[in-house]
TrEMBL record:
This is Pantothenate kinase. It comes from Ogataea philodendri. InterPro entries: ATPase_NBD (IPR043129), Type_II_PanK (IPR004567). PANTHER family: 4'-PHOSPHOPANTETHEINE PHOSPHATASE, PANTOTHENATE KINASE. It comes from the Eukaryota. Keywords: ATP-binding, Coenzyme A biosynthesis, Nucleotide-binding. GO terms for cellular component: cytosol; nucleus.
Length: 410
């Protein structure tokens, strides 16, 4: 069982420090974050996984909220909305679903609007309600959203929303940030105290969805970030390959399969080549020399069968392998590649802090450990990989905070 240790620091609760306002639009609606906390019991940590995403309580936010935000990506659609508590204050609620189920997602939005915002779009219309949308799907599904929800829709830039969301989480929500301690096999919660907010910048954001975007952030203003790189080898790559090579039906099932696999049965290791480690250049015997490098030999391992005479039956070939091993190998391949490119970008721009986010991570132990190991290995221990408990909701959270007071008639 993975233990969780914490590094916590007291935050100021004075009125001047309790209201969060970003600098990315003219007149952003403030959010009272005094006493904010993630709603979960630490006893819920089980096995090697962090708990599922939980609500964020805002016990002192009393202003009216008439916005819902969504981030429709290539693989997943996410929503953030505010629900009032009878006793005062309220909670930020988070939900995600595969974008292939877009109709189900829109139906869920309808239910949220009806229950929490008194808007069914037909018989009852809340003129003040705004749906703030970001991600590629905010353009692709704009007409469907407009037709079925019948409310004001405000489209926002995806990259800007990511930065606003990340800044909010890392600066305002206690115990949101963590890293993986390889020596003790523990998740360590940490945070940046508000009194030292200048230490937040600069940093590199590595957002891993279907693909990967890497963004250098130098400050809290609208012009203080730039996309410096990325990769087409991301969550969509892993999902696509495992959809063909395994019987998995969704991404979470693939991650579960990977957690049970042994990559050494399909990956070619340094020890397989040298019979030991190549210590002169820092490679241990169990380091991966070639992802899935043993597969070729296993495909053609039948006695007396030449490569040209080998069967072309794909299913017959797959039977030579354990699906769990394939899943583990490909998870390592994609994650290691992302980790190495991330380190190189951080090194290129002199950035010490690297935040990994996006729905690819899913708070999955092997993914977190692999990305952490890659950063630690390539930086020779000088850099850490930081993660967030709401890692898949940066865009939707940023969109939520883009509501402007000028447009709010509540």
């Amino acid at each position: 069982m993975i233990q969780v240790s914490s590094i916590r620091k007291e935050r100021s609760q004075s009125p001047t420090d309790s209201v969060y306002v970003h600098n990315h639009c003219k007149n952003p609606k403030p959010l009272n974050v005094t006493g904010a906390y993630i709603v979960h019991d630490e006893n819920d940590y089980r096995d090697s996984l962090l708990p599922d995403t939980k609500d964020i309580a805002l016990p002192n936010h009393t202003e009216s909220v008439n916005e819902i935000s969504i981030d429709i990506g290539g693989s997943l659609s996410k929503v953030v909305h505010f629900a009032k508590n009878k006793e005062g204050g309220g909670r930020l609620n988070f939900y995600k679903i595969e974008t292939s189920n877009i109709e189900k997602f829109i139906a869920y939005l309808k239910e949220i609007m009806k229950v929490h915002y008194h808007h069914d779009g037909v018989n009852e219309i809340n003129e003040n309600l705004t749906l703030i949308a970001t991600g590629g799907g905010s353009y692709k599904y704009y007409e469907d959203l407009q037709k079925q929800l019948n409310c004001r829709i405000q489209k926002e830039d995806e990259m800007e929303c990511l930065i606003i969301g990340l800044d909010f989480f890392i600066s305002q929500i206690p115990n949101e940030i963590f890293y993986f301690d390889e020596n003790n096999h523990t998740y360590v919660e940490t945070e940046i105290p508000e009194s030292e907010s200048e230490t937040i910048y600069p940093y590199l954001l590595v957002n891993i969805g279907s693909g990967v975007s890497m963004v250098k952030v130098t400050g809290s203003g609208p012009d203080n970030f730039i996309r410096v790189g990325g990769s087409s080898l991301g969550g969509g790559t892993l999902w696509g390959l495992l959809s063909v090579l395994t019987t998995c039906n969704d991404f979470d099932e693939m991650l579960e399969m990977a957690s049970k696999g042994n990559n050494e049965d399909v990956d070619l290791l340094v020890g397989d080549i040298y019979g030991k480690g190549y210590n002169k250049i820092g490679l241990k015997s169990n380091h991966i020399a070639s992802s899935m490098g043993k597969v070729f030999k296993k495909v053609f391992r039948k006695t007396g069968q030449s490569e040209s005479a080998s069967s072309d039956n794909r299913l017959e070939r797959l039977q030579n392998f354990n699906q769990q091993d394939i899943a583990r190998s490909l998870l390592y391949a994609v994650s290691n590649n992302i980790g190495q490119i991330s380190y190189l970008q951080a090194q290129r721009y002199g950035l010490d802090k690297i935040y990994f986010a996006g729905s690819y991570i899913r708070n999955h132990y092997q993914t977190i450990r692999t990305l952490s190991y890659a950063i630690n290995f390539w930086s020779e221990g000088s850099k850490k990989a930081y993660f967030l408990k709401h890692e898949g909701y940066l865009g939707s959270m940023g969109a939520f905070l883009k509501k402007e007071l000028d447009n709010d008639n509540a």
